[in-house]
Amino acid sequence: MSFILGVDTGGTYTDAVILEGEERVVSFSKALTTRSDLSLGIASAIEKAVEQENIDPEKISLVSLSTTLATNALVEGQGDRVALVMIGFKDSDLEKHSIFDALSGDPFLVADGGHNYAGFEKNPLDKNKLANWVSAVKGVSAYAICSQFAVRNPEHELEAAEIIRRLTNKPVSLSHQLSAKLNGPKRALTAILNARLIALIDLLIIKAEHVIKSLGILAPLMVVRGDGALISAEQAREKPIETILSGPAASIVGARWLTDEKEAIVSDIGGTTTDIAVLKGGKPAIDPKGASVGPYRTMVEAVAMYTFGLGGDSEVNLKIGGLNGDIFLGPKRVIPVSLAATIEPDLIHQILDSQLKSETPNDFDARFIRRIKAFTGLVLSERDDKVYKRIDEQFSPMSDVIKSRLDLQSVLKLVAIGVAQISAVTPSDASHVLGKSSAWDREAAIKALDLFARRRGGSGELLAGSPSQMAQRIVFQLTEQTSCSILEMAFSEEKIDFGNMPGVLAQHPLTRIGLEGHRDLIKIDVGINKKVIGLGASAPTYYPAVGDKLNCEVILPEYAGVANAIGAVVGKIVMRETGVISSPSEGKYLAHLDGKPINFNNEAEALQVLEEKLTEKSIKKAKEAGAENVTVNIDREVKTANIENRTVFVEANILVEASGRPRISKS
After folding, report:
1. Euclidean distance between the first and final Cα of the chain, in Å?
2. How confident is the model over 315-328, as pLDDT tens digits?
3. What pLDDT does residue 325 have?
């Protein structure tokens, strides 16, 4: 008997699922994700799943990993410090596509060089300027390079990478290796994010490989890509950006496997985010514009996923200003107080009890902070370093660390770069107070919500009269924000073009009263016209109310809490290669593929040669990733124009897709 193992490392939990072949779930388990040492959570989850049915580890023939860590890092603004090299661009080009926002003050260089649309050198690469700048840059973990029209000719990106590797021995992300599409600034953004994620994903894979070997599992390790396909661990290391939306993509594949639904909306609530996508014809819809995560639109091919900073561990915040005193959730993830109390019970309860005795509520009541790790070569400003030194490895009250508004900004920066963690009130705490969850410390949750309820809104009224009332308000707000998120996605995916209005329409008064079935002079009905598949461990707690709100059927499948781990191991390896043939002048055809353009005088020959090279390359990559029984599909798009009653070739785009199930080890 042969088994396959799927593992999903999320922001809060690490899940493990063992399937017999691809037919049925044999066992599953959950363990807390241990961010300070990811191997601990992975090992715990796998060990529990193996022990449940006393499975021989050597009989596990395939292991596949999906993760939300890259997605969460981008949503929360985390990641290592990087440097950007822009070749052949202008300073003004960095203002496009949020490049400055993505850099967040990290160093960059604009150097001479680049190519034209046909792939011929426009200006020589200024190698001396690049080498001098690289030698002066300090404190970065990786480099990103984007050269003008590198997808037509990557020569300058490759030369720049060679210089950087020789001088620094640091990882380098090249834009042409991440996307074959034009739009340099957008490729640059993708390269920046890829560089920022290298250390994070590399560490995860190293830890995962160590764990499976130490447990006696001999099977190869695969990783889920953002489109739901599988890639080898080594390929994931080279292009970690492709793992953004890995966890959410795996959940779509898992939802399809669990429900056999072909047309549905899939909404997966995790600890940090809610990820929403559409199943069309039994397959996840692919975003033609590239994966969008948080504030960034990348050029990574991935499922058309709408990711919102809303999860079970989203921080509960109080709106500043106004008379309503409304609360809102997210987008930042924190450690629930009920979870913190299971880590350091005596300390957390002592602090909560002390705060409850105070007659003067404080904005930092029921909020804690701790140091989680220190990075070698960490570069901090004098103020940030001063605040960092106040933070202990044990949880301590936020009020002991923050002495001014500027200190708060320093704390947020320390959390963003991953050296500190905050614990505060979350929907998970509310769920414990209401008796809908019992995994952590309910008494700590009650005390934390009691403290939060004592805060006052703009009208001067208390937020709630009791911890249970406060918990109900939080759960109600989660239902509201989840429903609004699903509506926004639905308006975005509608065949009607609503422009930039989906977010506005989701919260529009007409939509709101339509959901309630307004009946007066006007009859207004609004609802979701597809089934909603609710995934995530907390989905059964929250999603029935979401279905009622949106007037739709909600499916809560068995194993909904581990759908990501299931989807991680039932998918296929898919390798796509694209190439372009341009025509700079009539009768001349240039094939662009990983090097200088190849010149042809015949259209048919150019198409044939490029298709052959793309097919060879995609099959090779699929086999390197571990695929067997590879099948190939070729999509050819030829653009022409009518000039003086003649059909003239303009451009051809060729997509070759090689796919197959992973090769399993023979035990």
Report:
1. 10
2. 999 886 554 558 89
3. 53
* Residue percentage of the chain with pLDDT more than 90: 53
What is the pTM (predicted TM-score) of this model?
A: 0.74
Confidence of residue 376 (pLDDT cuts 50, 70, 90): low
Q: For the residues 581-608, what does the mean pLDDT come to?
A: 86
Segment holding 252, helix H or strand E? helix 246-259
Look over the chain and give the mean of its residue pLDDT values, rounded to a whole number. 89
E strand or H helix that includes residue 560: none
* pLDDT for residue 323: 46
Distance, CA of 49 to CA of 217 (rounded, Å):
13
pLDDT digits (tens, 9 = 90+) for 512-571: 999 999 999 999 999 999 999 999 888 998 999 999 999 999 999 999 989 999 999 998
Token pair of 64 as six digits: 């596949």
Task: Give the Cα separation of 289 and 492 in Å (integer).
Answer: 13
Quote the distance between the C-alpha of residue 468 and its chain's center: 33
Q: Cα(280)–Cα(261) distance, rounded to whole angstroms?
A: 9
Identity of the amino acid at 659: S
Per the rule left: phi > 0, alpha: psi between -120 and 50, beta: everything else, 594 is left
* CA-to-CA separations, 519 to 320, 484, 514, 516, in angstroms, rounded: 35, 22, 9, 9
Buried b (16+ CB within 10 A) or exposed e, 342-357: ebbeeebeebbeebee
Q: Please list, in sequence order, all residues whose beta carbon lies within 8 angstroms of the beta carbon of residue 612, skipping any fewer than 6 positions away.
A: none
CA dist., res. 345 & res. 334, Å (int):
17
Q: Are 254 and 570 in contact (CB under 8 A)?
A: yes
The answer to whether the CB of 639 falls within 8 A of the CB of 583 is: no
Locus of tokens 């490895």: 393
Q: What's the Rg (C-alpha) of the chain?
A: 26
Beta-carbon contacts of 516 under 8 Å, excluding residues fewer than 6 positions away, are none
Task: Give the pLDDT band (50/70/90) at residue 151.
Answer: confident
Distance CA 83, CA 172 (A): 10
User: Are the C-beta atoms of 269 and 546 separated by less than 8 Å?
Assistant: no
Record the tokens describing residue 57, joined without a space.
Answer: 């580890």
> If you search the block for the tokens 């996605």, which residue do you land on?
489
Phi-psi region of 54 (alpha: psi -120 to 50; beta: other; left: phi over 0): left
Question: DSSP per residue over 622-639, as a string?
Answer: HHHTTB-S-EEEEEEEEE
Confidence of residue 152 (pLDDT cuts 50, 70, 90): confident
pLDDT at 333 over 60: yes
Residue 102, CB-side half-sphere exposure with 13 Å CA sphere: 31
CA angle 248, 633, 617 (to 5 degrees): 85
Query: What is the C-alpha to C-alpha distance for residues 247 and 259, in angstroms, rounded to an integer?
Result: 18
Cα distance between residue 635 and residue 654, in whole Å: 6
Using DSSP bridges, classify how beta strands 335-336 and 60-67 pair: parallel, antiparallel or unpaired: unpaired
Helix, strand, or coil (residue 346): helix
Lookup: tokens for 493: 């995916």
Residue 177's pLDDT band (cuts 50, 70, 90): confident
- Which residues touch 321 (CB under 8 Å, ≥6 apart)? 458
Average pLDDT over residues 107-130: 90
What the chain holds in terms of domains, given with CATH numbers, is: 83-193 (3.40.50), 572-660 (no CATH)
Per the structure block, which two tokens stand in for 566? Answer: 């299931």
CB 5 within 8 Å of CB 16? yes
Per-residue pLDDT, averaged over 480-502, amounts to: 89
DSSP string spanning 514-536?
Answer: HHTTEESSSEE-----S-EEEES
